[in-house]
Design goal:
The protein has one domain: Beta Barrel (Porin). The protein is built from 3 helices and 18 strands. It is mainly β. 41% of the residues are buried.
Amino acid sequence: MNQGFTYILIIISVLGCISAAADSTDIHENAGTRAMTFLKIGVGAKAMGMGESHVAATDDLYASYWNPAGLARLQHPQLALMHNEWFAGINHEFVGFAHPFGSAGTLGASASFLSFGELQGRDREGNETTIFRPYDLAVVLSYARGFGKSFAFGTNAKFLREQIADESGTGIAFDLGGIYTFSEMPLLALGFNAQHVGPRVKFIEEAFGLPFTFRLGAAYRTSSQPFILTLDIIRPSDNDIAIAAGTGYTIGNVLELRTGYKYKIGGNDLGAISGLTGGFGLKFLRFQIDYALVPFGVLGLTHRFSLIANF
């Protein structure tokens, strides 16, 4: 077994089949069978702090992940940056820019980069070889447009690359999302997002499907809009259905406190506490800074920091 294939198994274990770390025999039949599983890692501290429940509430540049239709809600050009300090020395970065063009819609471009740091390569006999730096990359082009005050539509086109030692795999994928706001109840919205739709990706000698995920959700805001409640149903192709709920409360249009919970049907693999998230956001002039704390059970706590700048 060569070093590249060995590391493929490591990535699959961490990102696509993490349930193997728990004492559970009820593992989904498709767990660990998908390529580019880094696509399942959410971006933006705001949504993560609300339990990953944001498909109908997203309204900033991070909508390119949660629901590209949310980009139609942008009023000004935005720049977004995120740093995700994950476990085991893994870092996840995001950068993006979007520009609304009135009735013509909103265009955006973004990139996500997942770095595993330096790893020691070994040959088939276990002898040390060279140091290598595996990574995953997604470059995304987004477009969204509103149709009246009720409906918005958005789509992403993504170029994907995974590099492990001397081996690499590339692919393309698409997202399709929509948000409907009830005209008679303007504080209630429904949304959907079909993520990671695309052809199989070949890595070395085998081809793997992408981690297709379908999200359906609702968001409700109070009339004065300091309070928001969200609920999402998440159906991945390689794991069980999950239900996510989140809430946020804004104080003085400056500070927003958030919490949420994501529950996988059949139980969270890393314990009940692993589904609980929390965080806060601060608005200052044209800037918004967000933080989210996301526990991963025995793997420890992870921290997300994100920034939005309006122009």
